[in-house]
C-alpha cells in the first residue's frame, strides 16, 4: 500500500457516562478521509415518557423507539420553564401560549420530529430574556420486545462494507456448501455479522465453540473468546467464560468466506449442558430484561464490581484495555496496555514503536459508568474507520 504524504491519523472519544455498561471500540488507520463528529439532542426519560430541553435558537429533537410514535405532548413551554427533566417542569410567567399547540402540530403521530426554539416559531413571551424550550412527551404503539434469535447482517464483500442483507436468524448453524446465505450475496468473498444477547441457564463456566470455513471471531460480554481470522477448511475453535443464570450477555460473531465451502456454526457446553447448538430460546435480539441481578435482594444494577457489590470495593482500575495490531484486520501479535482515556492524534506516527505508521488497527474494551440517569450521546473523531459498541449496541459504525 502506498505511504501517505499528508496523513495525520487521529482518534478520540468524547464520552458522557452510562450506567456501568460494557463498551468496546475498534479503529483502523488506512486512508486520509477526514471525519466529522455527529451528535443528537439529549432526550431524557425511560419507558414511554421522554423529555427534551434546549436553549433558545437550538432545535429540539423528539424521538421514539422503532415502531412507536409520539402519542401526546404532556408538557411544553417556550420561555423560562422551571424544573428539569428529572424533577419535572412547571410553566413560569414567561411562557408562550403557543407552546403546546406548536409541539402537537409538529410532532403528534410522528416517529420523530424537530421544533426550533425561537421567537419566530412561538412568539416572544418575554422580550429581552434568554429563553429555552422544554417538552415532555409520550411514545406508544409497537413497543419493542426482544425476538428470539440473533440479528444477522450479510455483506457481498469480505470486509463488512457496502449494502447489507439483514434478517433474524433463529440459530447460527449453517453449512452453505459452495452457496451463500442469500440470493443477493455471492458464493465467495462475503462476510457476516450476528449480534444480540445470549442467556445462561446455569451459573457456571460455559465453553463456546465455533465451526467455520473461513475466518471467525466471537465476543461474549465484550470478551474476545475466539479469533481465527484466517482462511481454513471447516475448523472448530473454542473459548470459555463464566456466566450467571438468568442474565443475558451481549454476543457478537463476525465471519468471512473467501472461497470454496462456507460454514458458520455456534455451539456451547457447560457442566450442566451437553455440547449443542445454542438454541433459539436462549438467543435474543435485545436485552429486554428489567432485572439484571436476580439474586441481589437490593436489585443493584451490575456495575464494574458486579451485582450487589458497592462501587469502590473492588479494584478494576481506571481506563480501557487497549490492543494494538500491526495489521488492519486485528490479526497477529498485539501490543496491550491500559489507556487512561482515548484521545489520540498520532500525526504520521503510530501508538507504539512496534506498530507501523500505516495499516494498523486497535481495540479498546472495558466499562463506562454513568453519573446521571439520562440519554448520553457518544462522539468519535477518527481517521480512518471506527466502530463503537456500548452495552452490546452498535452505536457508531463508520468502517
Number of β-strand runs: 29
* Main beta-sheet annotation: 7 strands, antiparallel
Structural class by secondary-structure content:
mainly beta
Any low-confidence stretches, pLDDT <50, length ≥5?
A: 1-22, 31-46, 296-306, 308-316
Shape: elongated
| Count of separate DSSP helical elements | 2
Q: What Rg, in angstroms, do the CA atoms define? A: 24 Å
Strand content: over 45%
Q: In whole angstroms, how far apart are the ends? A: 18 Å
**Approximately how much helix is present in the residues?**
under 10%
The averaged pLDDT comes out at 80
Describe the oligomeric state of these chains in a short phrase: single chain
Care to describe what's here?
By secondary structure, the chain is mainly beta. It is 3% helix and 46% strand. It has 2 helices and 29 strands. Strands 11, 12, 14, 16, 17, 19 and 22 form a 7-stranded antiparallel beta sheet that branches. A 6-stranded antiparallel beta sheet has the order 24-23-26-2-28-29, with no helix packed on it. The two termini are 18 Å apart.
Secondary structure elements and pairings:
Elements: E1 10-14, E2 21-29, E3 44-46, E4 49-55, E5 59-63, E6 69-79, E7 82-84, E8 88-90, H1 99-107, E9 112-116, H2 119-122, E10 132-140, E11 150-155, E12 164-169, E13 173-177, E14 190-199, E15 204-213, E16 216-220, E17 223-228, E18 235-243, E19 248-257, E20 262-270, E21 273-277, E22 283-284, E23 320-325, E24 334-339, E25 343-345, E26 360-368, E27 379-382, E28 386-390, E29 393-398
Antiparallel strand pairs: 1-25, 1-27, 2-26, 2-28, 3-4, 4-10, 5-9, 6-10, 7-8, 11-12, 11-14, 13-20, 14-19, 14-22, 15-18, 15-20, 16-17, 16-19, 20-21, 23-24, 23-26, 28-29
